[in-house]
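User: Hello, can you help with two protein structures?

Assistant: Certainly.
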Amino acid sequence: MQSDWSIDVPNLGEVIFRQELLKSLAKFRQLDACDKESGGVLIGKYLNSGGAMQIDDFTPPQPTDKQSRCGFYRSATHNRIVTQAWRESEGHATYVGLWHTHPESNPNYSLLDRRDWEKALKESRYEGQHLFFIIVGQQSLRCWVGVNSKKETKISLIGERHFGK
């Protein structure tokens, strides 16, 4: 991964995933048979009133999380870390989504993942109507955007980024 990753998201604008974030997430890939799923929260900043966003930070797995080869439970510790980042940034750094790993080359979400994302869209407190969901696989990571409106909850794949050799 050589540079930032920019995606033009419908009804939001350009979303920039910083290179350092992508490199850090890649370190959690489940490359060995004994590697457990990891996950956490994505932290970002709105760049202007037009809705452009930069996602540049995340919460790493916490000791209070529950991890297995094909499962991950995110503990409340992640919420406290995001709240602290928000306070320290004077309200600029904010919760913008969730990430986790899968032990597959090119990840797809499971029914359990989809339910977790829908719950986050409906019940979490966040700015705007969008949340981002990243799954880190062994060869690539994929990103979905979720939109919560009064009519429906919609989740769409917006991009895939392959890891370098």
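That covers the first. Now for the second protein you mentioned:
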Amino acid sequence: MKTLLRPAIVLFGMLMIVTGLVYPAIVTAIGQAAFNRQANGSLIELDGKVVGSEIIGQQFDAPKYFWGRLSATTPNPYNGINSSGSNLGPTNPALADAVKARIAALHEADPDNKADVPVDLVTASGSGLDPEISPAAAAYQVARVAKARGLSAAQVEAMVAQATSGRQFGVLGEPRVNVLKLNLALDRARG
């Protein structure tokens, strides 16, 4: 028994050191050296103060701001620690109620907008943390934001176009608009 136990303990200890200490240290060092900004959360700073992250959404509900996708994290929206989907299926009444409530909020904020509401403005993503919306969702909100800020729709549309990212490598994903970056650009435009 001793002849089997000693090698097993030594092997366990070596693997624990390699996989629990050495490998994470190497990966962390590579991440910090080659991808420092991304490894530290892709933080966005304004006047030396961190205002958010490019990769985690934020709650915006004032009419002067573009609104992002709903967050499924509870009890606090866009909480990275609680990243998860809502797990509500299309026939679940709770999902239908949440969608109706968001549509009502959008119509209340912009009663003159009679366009169809884009689906990404009324549903949460799989992670519940999406920082981006579709160009259609941004276009839906242009009139409300322009009116609230005293800007022309053309000015706001130009800012949306500037904040729109295309497909990754030209083929992966869909065009998207980072809500935080767009809202910060709007704030800077008005001083």
